[in-house]
Structures are given as C-alpha cells and as structure tokens.
C-alpha cells in the first residue's frame, strides 16, 4: 500500500469499527461476527503501530465501546470501567505471560483464570452494604444509570451479608455482567415471533435491549440475571483482600451471585490447561461464555502494571472460536434492502448449532459467493460466532455432487425486475429503482421506527399496506395521506386513522436528529445523527455541508465523524433525488426541533481542545458538548496543534505536556467565560 492508501484504509477501518460499535453497543443489533470485528480491530491496531503518524486519539482501538443511550441519566463511575485486550491464540497467551514476567521482573506469581461472561457490563454500588446504584459501562468514564431496572433482578441482593471473614466496606463498586439464560431468551423470542416482532439474534443482545427499556415493569417481566466478579472503587481501600482469589470468596460470602469457578495457575502451561478445562465445563454454566479471562492474582502487582487507555495491563481475555456445523445448502434467495442492496441468503437444511436450530445464514454479497464458489446443493460449514446471525464459512468440496452448477447471481431485482447494478468500488449489487416497492417499504419502515421518527400506529404492517396501495412512494408522501383513502383499509377504523394522522402530523416537529437518522444515510446511526444535528442545526445546512465542514488538515472537525461518513453524507445529498426529498419534506411542513445548545456555533471553529483532570462542575462529556457546540474539536492527546488544554484537578501528564509545548492552559471558569462572552455578542447582533 502507498502511504495515501494506508491512511485511507485506516480511516475506513475506523469508520467501519465505529459503525459496528454503534450497532453492537447501542442498538444491540450487530451485523458481523465478533471474530470478524476483532480481525478488523487488529488490522487497525497493527497499522497504527506501524504508522503512528496516521493514528488518531479517537480511534476505536483507544476507547472503550460506548453503550450510553437516550432516556437515561448519566452517572460517572468513581473508578473507570475498562475493556480487556483479547486473543484467540495460545501463542499470544504465552506472550502475555512472558510480558508479565518481564515487566514484573520475576517468574513467581499466580494468575487466576475465570469464565468470560457474554453479557453486558454493569457496575453495582453498595453503600454500607445497601444497594444504591447500578450503572452500565457507558464509555468507561460515565454510564447510564439503570438502577430501577437492575432492582427487578431477583438474584441481585439489596443488602450485602457481612461476616467476620468478609466484612462489608463502607462503599464499593462491584463489576459484573447482566445476562439472560438461554431458556428465557427462547421464551421471549417465541413470544415476539407470535406477536410478529423482530427476533433477537442472541441472549446478549436481548439482555442489552432489555436493560435499556425505559419502563421497569417491562424489564420485570423478563428474567434478567446477574453475575459479579470484579472490584471498582472501594472505601476504605484497605478494607479489601489482597488477591483476586480472596475477593472471589468475599463476593460469595456477601451473598452475591458470582462465577462458578476460578482456576489458579502459576505458568503459561497451567493457564492454557485451565482454559481447556473451562472450555469443556462452560456448557454447564448458567450464562453464555465467549472465553476465559486471565488475571494477575495479587492486587498489589495489578497496581504495579496499571492500565492503557482502554484495558488493564494485568489481564487478558482468551476468546473461544465460534461453533461450526456442516449442513446442506438447499437454496439461495435474494433479499432487497433499504438502499436497494441485494443480499443473498442461504436456505439451509436445518442444523443444530450452539444450542439453536439454524436454517438460514447470510452469504453477504455476490463476490463472496463467487470467491467461496458456493453452489446450491453444496455441503457447507456454518458458523455462529458469539451466537450472532449465522454465516456460511466454507464449502466441503469432497461432498460436491458432479451435477452442482455454479450459482448465477440474478441480474434483475427480484422485487421489481429492474436490472441490478454494481457501483465501482463497492461490493454490493443494487437495485437502482427508487420506487422499488421493497426498498420504499424498508425506507418508510426505518423512517417511522422507534429509533427515528417513532410514529405510533405506523408499524411494519401498516407501512406495507400504504406502499401496496401506492399511496406512499417516497417519505414526503407520508405527510399527504388522504383520510378517506385510509378509511378504506378496514371497518371501524375511524378512530385509529385519526390517531395515525395525528401521530404523523406531530412527527413534523420531532427532534432534528430523528429526521437525520430517518433519511437512512449509510453509516449514519443515532449517535452520528445527534452529533450532526448539534453541529448543523437544520436539514438544509446538513444538505449544503462541504468537506470543509467535516475535515480540516485531514483531521475530522466533528468528533466521531470521519472521512468515510462525511463522504457518505455528501454523496447522499449530491444526489438530486435526496435533495428534492429534503425540500419536499420541508414543503410538507416538516419543521424539526433543533438542539438547544447553541447549534452551529463558530466561536471555536478550527480550534482543538484537550480536557484533562476533573473539572469542578462539568463532566468531560458536558464540557466536550459545549466546545463542540461552539464549533471546536475535542481531542484526546496534546500536540503542538492543540489550541487549549482545559485542566481540572488531578490533571496528569497531559498538563505537563501542554506546559512543555507552550499550549495555553485554561480552567473551567475560563472556558465558561469564553462561551458566555460569545453568547453575549450573538445576543446583541
Ligand atoms: N460484532 C460486532 O459488531 C461487535 C462490535 C463491537 C464489539 N464487539 C465485541 O465486543 C468485544 C469488545 O467488547 P468489550 O470492550 O466489551 O470487550 P470484551 O467483551 O471483549 O471484554 C471486556 C469485557 O469483558 C467483560 N467480562 C466478562 N467476564 C469477565 C471477567 N470474568 N472478568 C473481567 N471482565 C469480564 C467485562 O464486562 C469487560 O468489560 C469485541 O472483542 C467484539 O468481540 C462486537
Ligand atoms: Zn427493485
């Protein structure tokens, strides 16, 4: 690769990973297998090491995946919640051990090996033994306060048991995972299937989706469970035992559900043996596991090694490869997506895989079928990584019948018959017809869905009817529906029709980010839509944005939005059809509510801020929001290009670096003054 290509590849990897993070952490609907996600991340990390010049501080390799979502209070963890470095290989686990030996400068130390629970991370705080709070990992610094929902978990005690062997500290944050048992997962999915609702791919996603329900009574109907294994902030700190092994005993003594078993190991061989044993036993555990976690046992040694920006140096996750099974491919069908992408789907002879029956699997795209030479009638191996949507991995050529013909990808869209196209540089084959009924249906469904305009009464079945009748051919048509027409859809539908029309009318003034998300621009999820709404303040301003609004000196101006996403957004609006769509929506009376935080400010345009230490009243996110709302950029590391470092108490190396480089250092009060002066000026103009 040339340097430019390398830089492009890295930007592309960052954008892709950001998108998968959004799908996984916030929407609990991952599109790719963990193994593939981990491979992308590894590729990026390797490139960053080789080309540090092209690395950016906001890279997904440097941050903890962010699960925070709408409708919850943020809560700052007293001690950060971290991720874990991971590996799939014995050799790398040996290397990890060798690194510990080097860094600790000794051969003798104990390690513990624990199951790696595939749930969602949570921190539970007990004050004087009483349960006071439960918070998700969030971005590691602050998470969503899910206390009300966590209180519905029957196995989570509201009071810790104290004993002479395990005294209860004044205050402790205990880390663990919330999960759903396989049976409960199947029960809920079966219910959803009957109700015609979308199914969850695995227990982790369903647990993640459940804990983020805004109504605790819904949560209470699902039997969430919890397992606790780790320690966060503790007061007084001497109150805790000196090893991870003992801590495990204490957690049990306090009456908390914890991992079934812990292994102790003294060298790499013992670690690997314990992992093998765990791999056999894990099927009998109450929760799904996706690996083992290997940790230094002595807390003092853990402290010596410390942590990187996202993971402790004293622990390593060993992930198990996903389960595979062989079965016969009966047929390949083609699905039409929202943007016209034709996705081939494998229709399989049903097979048992990781505890469920699998009869369909994704084949990704035309090239993938050709590359693997997958043919109808073949015997294929199917994998279910992390229990996500199964994928066809390979063909067993030995079993191929001589009559098996190569698969010919259809040249026409199966929904509308239009000749499919492949845009240069893209893997996807698309139906280019904007009025393709399946595409329209999916676009409108997306627009009306809860994650977008959230229009009540406009569920998938209703959208199907509107499109079928030909009343809705594009999004703006929704705002011109005819009441008399709607009344023909059934008997006694006066009331529901009026309700639907009122909900559609009300959606005209929904928040701007909902419309941005609702347009269905590739790569733009809710998080990005919110950032865009804050920065641009209107649909037309977003449609008119040029590359300068996104990138300056090749650095992204809006945090979280890089070149790939910027290209996707500009590409979307470069298309006259989409421009017209925005104009038509506005002409139909759409008038989105804009964010209140001084959207589109220019005070700090072109300036980069670095936040460090604890600010007196603002959380880091609040400060970052204020800076970004005024057009500034927040970066994670100090360089000569940094305009200001905003320092609070306990500011560390960043402050020192700023002083060394002569970067201006300000405090929260000064930041507020700058913003207030600007507001005053704007107010008088
Ligand atoms: N498929 C996708 O699109 C997608 C997207 C994002 C992330 N992911 C998956 O998630 C992983 C990254 O997520 P992550 O940052 O949550 O890391 P992780 O799940 O690989 O490991 C870190 C987490 O493990 C949990 N954990 C479970 N048992 C533990 C134990 N006994 N001790 C300590 N911690 C334990 C903790 O919550 C900790 O935060 C990736 O490696 C990837 O596999 C997948
Ligand atoms: Zn079509």
TrEMBL record:
It comes from Synoicihabitans lomoniglobus. The lineage of its organism: Bacteria, Pseudomonadati, Verrucomicrobiota, Opitutia, Opitutales. Belongs to the NAD-dependent DNA ligase family. LigA subfamily. GO terms for molecular function: DNA ligase (NAD+) activity; metal ion binding. Keywords: DNA damage, DNA repair, DNA replication, Ligase, Magnesium, Manganese, Metal-binding, NAD, Zinc. This is DNA ligase. Residues 601-678 form the BRCT domain. NAD(+) binds at residues 34-38, 83-84, 114, 137, 177, 295, 319. Its cofactor is Mg(2+); Mn(2+).
């Amino acid at each position: 690769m040339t340097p430019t290509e390398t830089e492009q590849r890295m930007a592309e990897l960052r954008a892709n990973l950001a998108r998968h993070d959004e799908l996984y952490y916030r929407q609990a609907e991952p599109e790719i297998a963990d193994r593939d996600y981990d491979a992308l991340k590894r590729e990026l990390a390797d490139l960053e090491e080789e080309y540090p010049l092209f690395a950016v501080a906001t890279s997904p390799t440097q941050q903890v995946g962010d699960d925070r979502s709408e409708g919850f209070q943020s809560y700052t963890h007293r001690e950060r919640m971290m991720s874990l470095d991971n590996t799939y290989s014995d050799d790398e686990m040996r290397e990890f051990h060798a690194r510990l030996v080097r860094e600790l400068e000794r051969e003798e130390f104990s390690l513990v090996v624990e199951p790696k629970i595939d749930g969602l991370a949570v921190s539970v705080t007990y004050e004087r033994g009483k349960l006071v709070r439960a918070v998700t990992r969030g971005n590691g610094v602050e998470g969503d306060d899910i206390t009300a929902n966590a209180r519905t978990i029957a196995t989570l005690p509201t009071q810790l048991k104290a004993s002479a062997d395990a005294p209860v500290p004044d205050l402790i944050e205990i880390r663990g995972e919330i999960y759903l048992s396989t049976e409960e997962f199947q029960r809920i999915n079966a219910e959803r299937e009957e109700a015609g609702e979308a199914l969850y791919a695995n227990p982790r996603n369903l647990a993640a989706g459940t804990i983020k329900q805004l109504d605790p009574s819904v949560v209470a109907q699902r039997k969430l469970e919890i397992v606790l294994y780790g320690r966060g902030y503790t007061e007084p700190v001497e109150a805790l035992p000196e090893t991870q092994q003992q801590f495990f005993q204490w957690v049990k003594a306090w009456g908390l559900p914890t991992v079934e078993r812990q292994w102790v190991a003294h060298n790499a061989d013992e670690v690997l043996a314990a992992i093998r044993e765990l791999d056999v036993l894990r099927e009998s555990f109450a929760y799904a596991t996706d690996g083992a976690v290997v940790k230094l046992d002595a807390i003092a040694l853990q402290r010596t090694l410390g942590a990187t920006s996202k993971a402790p140096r004293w622990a390593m996750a060993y992930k198990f490869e996903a389960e595979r099974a062989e079965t016969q491919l009966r047929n390949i069908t083609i699905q039409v997506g929202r943007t016209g992408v034709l996705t081939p789907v494998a229709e399989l002879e049903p097979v048992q895989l990781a505890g469920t029956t699998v009869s369909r699997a994704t084949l990704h795209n035309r090239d993938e079928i050709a590359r693997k030479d997958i043919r109808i009638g073949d015997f294929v191996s199917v994998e279910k990584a992390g229990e996500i949507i199964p994928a066809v991995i390979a063909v067993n050529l030995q079993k191929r019948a001589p009559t098996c013909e190569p698969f010919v990808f259809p040249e026409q869209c199966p929904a509308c018959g239009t000749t499919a196209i492949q845009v240069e540089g893209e893997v996807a084959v698309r139906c280019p017809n904007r009025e393709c009924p399946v595409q329209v249906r999916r676009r409108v469904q997306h627009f009306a869905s809860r994650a977008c305009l959230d229009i009540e009464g406009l569920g998938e079945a209703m959208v199907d009817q509107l499109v079928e009748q030909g009343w809705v051919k594009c999004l703006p048509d929704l705002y011109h529906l005819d009441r008399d027409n709607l009344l023909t859809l059934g008997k006694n539908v006066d009331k529901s029709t009026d309700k639907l029309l009122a909900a559609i009318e009300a959606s005209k003034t929904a928040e701007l980010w909902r419309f941005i998300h609702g347009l269905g621009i590739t790569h733009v999820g809710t998080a990005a839509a919110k950032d865009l709404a804050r920065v641009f303040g209107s649909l037309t301003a977003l449609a008119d944005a040029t590359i300068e609004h996104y990138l300056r000196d090749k650095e992204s101006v809006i945090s979280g939005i890089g070149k790939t996403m910027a290209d996707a957004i500009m590409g979307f609006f470069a298309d006259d059809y989409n421009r017209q769509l925005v104009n038509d929506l506005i002409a139909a009376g759409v008038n989105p509510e804009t964010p209140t935080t001084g959207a589109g400010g220019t005070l700090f345009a072109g300036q980069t801020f670095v936040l460090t230490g604890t600010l007196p009243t603002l959380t880091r996110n609040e400060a970052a929001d204020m800076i970004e709302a005024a057009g500034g950029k927040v970066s994670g590391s100090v360089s000569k290009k940094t305009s200001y470092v905003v320092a609070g108490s306990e500011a560390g190396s960043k402050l020192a670096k700023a002083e060394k480089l002569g970067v201006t250092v300000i405090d929260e009060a000064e930041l507020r003054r700058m913003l207030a002066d600007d507001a005053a000026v704007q107010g008088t103009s």
